[in-house]
């Protein structure tokens, strides 16, 4: 057992209670080679922190279930909420090293170098959104590690632990790989701690955490961020200017085409499952643009065990206490499955910008964060397609009034629909900015004129099928 300096332990408790009360989320990452002493140091820290808001997250070698999700999925999933603390015993760094050592490339659409970039972007996104990310690397002499392993071998109850350590040491190039990360550029700096003297090591760990969190507490007393949406006085758009009368499909033609496309979509679903390719489909657009109906026709013949329809509403209190991408990262589909998003993470740069729910800095930096998030999905094997359904203001009014006057549709309309309509030009400008700044090769936007619902549904289905067929053909060529 490690003897902790009582004054440091008391001060750590005081500081972390303040960060908790101020709503500052903290992530403490502890890396180190097998038998380096990191488990004893981690446990001492865990024992010193308040259990009500501290969580211990151990990164084990990836299992089959882990490999079915994007590389960073389990770290997004375990993000601490505002004011809470996570101790990450091993982290995304260990996970990448194990992917490399075991040459795990299933469900990864790129080389490991781009996964490193995803990790860096992940840390930057967290830091930019108020997370304190503290990273520690525990080292000790090779002789000390070997002696510790021998002591475990000599204990019949702990012999299994020694065998686990030896297995990792024989297979992993952990020290060499971590040296590369320690020397490289990073958003959050590493603190290296020598465990040769365990009491000194603990004091160094506690002091570093206290110093960092005190600095953050002091910086927290700044001016309240601006919540300006920064809109033009007389906004004019070229992106959503259509000849809606021409973008139509006759009813009889629609009834002919739709069943064949839906049948092909079902085949695509099974092909994606067979090839373990996840599909992410995002639907944005003005109120009453037909997003739900479009999704309904796309999934009409799909196997319900292989897709999830995510109808995104107002975030809950728990969701608001996390990073804004958290509730979406948790819902990203596993390999071979399809995730529909009826509205999405783009709320940050749409409704939150227009209504002043996000600060000016927050929604402006979100464009890059969202691009990084979608690139990480792509790098982990996903096909990402984003639709914006565009209709004109007169057609929207017609649909809203139809809902109001039709009893079985009245549930679809809310006060928000009318209030949002009053801010039509603001939403239009925010939507155009969103598309221009987040339309990428790996996650393209497809803007569809949607005055004619039939035309929008057929166009979206054809687009999904075409992009998925291209991805499937590309994967088969590379095999």
Automatic annotation (TrEMBL):
Top-rank taxon, per record: Bacteria
Record's keyword annotation contains Nucleotide-binding: no
InterPro entries xref list: P-loop_NTPase, PPK2-related
Residue intervals of the Polyphosphate kinase-2-related domain: 7-217, 251-470
GO molecular function: kinase activity
Family annotation (PANTHER family): POLYPHOSPHATE:AMP PHOSPHOTRANSFERASE, POLYPHOSPHATE:AMP PHOSPHOTRANSFERASE-RELATED
Keywords associated with the record: Kinase, Transferase
Pfam families assigned: PPK2
Record keyword Coiled coil present: no
Gene3D superfamilies: P-loop containing nucleotide triphosphate hydrolases
Name of the molecule in the record: Thymidylate kinase
